[in-house]
Design a protein that fits this description.
Helix content: 55-70%
Number of helices: 6
Number of strands: 2
Strand content: 5-15%
Radius of gyration: 17 Å
Largest sheet: 2 strands, antiparallel
Distance between the termini: 34 Å
Length: about 120
């Protein structure tokens, strides 16, 4: 288990998607392709412009999305997944399958702990 020590590279995958909105942005871009922030925000629903902007910046910083500016008036910017962002879909789906199977048990444990 040395690959999961405090300074291991495997932790990067979990840290990259630790924010609650980052995986939603990745999945939405995967499903619909490159898009402008306003369209992305509409497709996601329930996310503020600031929170989306923060998520896009964080994902760009981590190399999961690419920002494509266009020299137009008015200015236009599209975001799309990079190869690394697309490659995260498989482990994200595996985590989703885990959640589908065990979310009830986790929530039950949390309720028992709080009681």
């Amino acid at each position: 288990m040395d690959e999961y020590t405090a300074d291991c590279q495997a932790r990067v995958a979990f840290e990259v998607l630790a924010n609650r909105w980052d995986s939603v942005v990745v999945f939405t871009l995967a499903a619909h392709g490159p898009m402008r922030p306003a369209v992305l925000r509409t497709r996601i629903g329930g996310i503020s412009a600031k929170v989306l902007n923060d998520a896009l910046r964080r994902l760009e910083y981590n190399g999961l999305v690419a920002r494509q500016p266009y020299a137009e008036a008015p200015p236009r910017v599209d975001y799309e997944l990079t190869e690394a962002g697309s490659a995260l879909l498989e482990p994200m789906r595996a985590m989703g399958a885990w959640a589908t199977r065990y979310a009830g048990a986790v929530l039950d444990a949390q309720q028992r702990y709080m009681a």
